[in-house]
Amino acid sequence: MSIAFKDVNYIYSPDMPYAFKALSDINFELPEKKIIGVIGHTGSGKSTLIQHLNALLLPSSGEVIVDEFTVKSEKNKNLKQLRKKVGLVFQFSEYQLFEETILKDVAFGPKNFGASVSEAEASAKEALKLVGIDKSYYERSPLDLSGGQKRRVAIAGILAMKPDIIVLDEPTAGLDPHGAREMIRLFQKLNQENGTSIIIVCHDNEIVYRYCDYALVMNKGELVYQGSSKELFENESNREKFNLLAPNVIEFQKQLKENGFNLKENYEDMESLVKAVAKELK
C-alpha cells in the first residue's frame, strides 16, 4: 500500500491569535511493506504527522495519499474504510481503552467494521495471544492493567482489525527492555510474514537503526531527512547535521577500532558485535 504526502501543511487553531503551524510543506513517498521509523525531538511534529495517515487530522493544505484514498482539507468520503486499512496506536494507550472487559475492548474494532460477535471475538483472542496477554485476563477490566499491559491490549485492538498499515506512537513506552524487544519482533513478524507496513514513532535510536528499513526525521515541523535508517546513523555527518546520538552499537564499534580491534564489518546489534570481539580475543 502506497503512502505519500504532497505539500502538506497543518495549522492548529487557524485564524486565532495562538495559531501554530505544526507541519510545513511536507513531501515524501514511503516504500511499501517496510518498517518505517519517524524520529525527532519533542515538538518536532511527529505525532501530528502520523495522525494524518488515517485522517484523524486533515491537512490545512496539500494532500495525503494512502493507496486509493486521497485526503484533503475539505470533507472526505470513505474515511471509515481508510481507518480499517490504517490502524493507529496512540502514545497514551489508556485513552483507547473503554469497554468493561479486555476481550470486549479488543473485539470492538472488528465488530465496528462488520464482523459478527463470534468472528470479532476470534480475531480478538488471536491478537491478544500475539501480544502476550493470557486468556485468564480476558474478563478483567482493561483499566485495572499496568501501563505496559494497557499498551499491549491497545495494540491488540488494532491487530484484531487486520489493517494493511499499523502506525504506532512510542509503542515500547512502559515496557521493560525484554518486553520492548518482544514487541518490536512482533512488528517484524507481521511485516515479514503478512507484508504489513509498520510506521513507528520512536525516541529510541537503537530501535530505529536495528529494526527500521527507512527513516523520517522531523525538526520544528519540517521533514529534514528521508531515506535509509542505516545511512542515517552510520554516516557521522548525518548524525551531526540532525543532532542525533549514535546508537550504542555504532559508538562501541568506533571505540573498539580506535583501540586496535580489527572489525571487518559494521554490526547492527550488540549481540553480533560481542561475538565478533570474543572471537578476536580468542
Descriptive key words:
single chain; about 280 residues; alpha/beta; Rossmann fold; 2 domains; four-stranded antiparallel sheet; 11 helices; 10 strands; globular
What is the percent of helical residues? 25-40%
Radius of gyration: 20 Å
CATH class of the largest domain: Alpha Beta
Total helical segments = 11
Class computed from helices, strands and strand pairing: alpha/beta
Strand order of the largest sheet: 6-7-8-3-9-10
Largest sheet: 6 strands, mixed
Describe the global form.
globular
Q: Terminal Cα separation, in Å?
A: 48 Å
Would you write up a description of this structure?
This protein is α/β, with parallel strands linked by helices and 282 residues long. The protein has 2 domains: 3-240, Rossmann fold (3-Layer(aba) Sandwich); 247-282, no CATH class. The protein contains 11 helices and 10 strands. The protein has helices spanning 46-50, 79-85, 102-112, 117-130, 147-159, 177-194, 205-211, 229-234, 236-241, 248-258, 270-281; strands at residues 3-12, 20-30, 35-39, 61-66, 69-71, 86-89, 165-169, 197-201, 214-219, 222-228. The longest helix has 18 residues, at 177-194. It starts with a strand and ends with a helix.
